[in-house]
Amino acid sequence: MQSLAAGAHGPSPVILVVFGVAGLAALWCGLSWAFDVRGITTRRSERIRRRREEAWAAMGRLGGGTPTLSGSVGYLRLLGVAMAGAGAVLLLATYALWHLR
Q1: 8 A C-beta contact, residue 25 and residue 94
Q2: pTM score, two decimals?
């Protein structure tokens, strides 16, 4: 057992790469949603609203249904802020793990 423990000097480089790439991706996507870069959040909100209207029309109900929080622009921007925060935490964890090596 001690021979296995003696060989472990820190986190695997694969884990560092996965955390780093996931952190960068989450940070980039979150900031894009939070600041509505190129209208990403607005278009997504419109698609959600249109899809709900089509679903309500397919059921024979007119009027588009009730508006929900999950399709609003503000909610999607809030999700973007949360995603950007998670990306920043992942990048900080990557940095901390890298210094443990």
Answers
A1: no
A2: 0.72
- Cβ neighbours of residue 101 closer than 8 Å, sequence gap 6 or more: 9, 10, 11
Q: How many CB atoms lie within 10 A of CB 97?
A: 16
Q: Long-range contacts for 49-56 (Cβ within 8 Å, ≥24 apart)?
A: none
Give pLDDT tens digits for 9-33.
677 889 999 999 999 999 999 999 8
Six-digit token pair at 93? Answer: 């964890």
Cα separation, 24 vs 49, whole angstroms: 30
* Tokens (6 digits) for 47: 């698609």
Q: Is residue 49 a contact partner of residue 71, using CB atoms and an 8 Å limit?
A: yes
